[in-house]
Amino acid sequence: MKTYTKSIALAALTLTLAGSAWSADTTVAGKWKGQFDSQIGLQKYTYEFKVDGTNLTGNAIGIRDNGTNNVAIAEGKINKDEISFVEPLKFQDNELRIEYTGKVSGDEIKFHRKVGDFAEEDFVAKRVKEAEPKTEVKPEAKAATNSPPAKP
Questions:
Q1: What does CATH list as the number for 2-127?
Q2: Which of 23, 33, 47, 125 is the most buried (most CB within 10 A)?
Q3: For 36-47, how does the pLDDT look when each residue is reduced to its tens digit (9 = 90+)?
Q4: Cβ distance 74 to 89 under 8 Å?
């Protein structure tokens, strides 16, 4: 009986650890969108995250009135529900270091964004849910009857 109990405990521990690793990958991996007002106007961002253990990679795609940028994120880290990364951005011939820290909660990430030493923003990014594949709905076929039509 002791061997059986140990086997169950070991299996439960293995599933728990595997589940933790799986949830870390799926918690942040994917596409997220957020927007915020800044010193240069409204900025709309799409973040495409990939997770490998505690490493976070992907792209930050920003759209603003005076242009669009698509930057590979750097120094990405994930630790449970906290993420951080850097967006190294070239803007008007200036190299900017934009640092992000965030806390994941379900389908939202509450971000703090620090642009060099001159600007900071807080905003929420939301997970982009993939559209469900549409299935064609066919009208039901009329049931065939063996009886003759009713007489008037």
A1: 2.40.128.120
A2: 47
A3: 999 889 999 999
A4: no
